[in-house]
Known about the structure:
Arc Repressor Mutant, subunit A, rod-shaped, mainly alpha, about 210 residues, 11 helices, 2 domains
Amino acid sequence: MSDQSYNLTAPKPKKIDHNIDDCYKVWPGNVYYSVFGKACGTVPDDAEEAIEHLFKTTSRNKEIFYARFKDCKTYASIGRDFGLTSSRINQIISKEIRKLRHPSRIEYLRDLKGHIDRVKAQEAAFQEERKRQAEELQNKMKDIATIYTIHISELNLSTRVYNCLINSGIKTIGDIVETDISGLLKIRNVNYRSIAEIVSECKRFGVLLED
């Protein structure tokens, strides 16, 4: 058998670009086909929005990418527009396609609406938690304000200590906190034993005194 007859049975080169659906030959389907290949599936309605979402800032690479896929220009034509070689244009396009294939970006292309909904749900949950914490803090502040209005007669203080505070104009727990320990020690007949008594009673109401 001759070599010529053998060549007749040799496999023919595959025609990749000409065998794909028409929707993958034009923007934005051509981007999806370049990213996903034959596993592309149906191009979503928000495909163009998804691509735009991944190019948040205007850059030369974005312009080159759009010129290739949206305007369907050749590498040579794009190279002339940007003063670059066709080889360099090819490198830039390939780089942007690799970036789109990254797991952190590819979810935008597959399901932009679903991703946005998930982000919104996470943001809503975060805001709800912040609101809950703010309300909890506000309630605590109200509780503290209420505690600060409690008259010192509610404290189990000795008569001597009680009279010392009253005679100094200290009538509430709030007054004690505002005066602080160093100020209390300046009151006549108030010593460290008196301070221990005051600190212990204030602690009973959840108020910690610091020097």
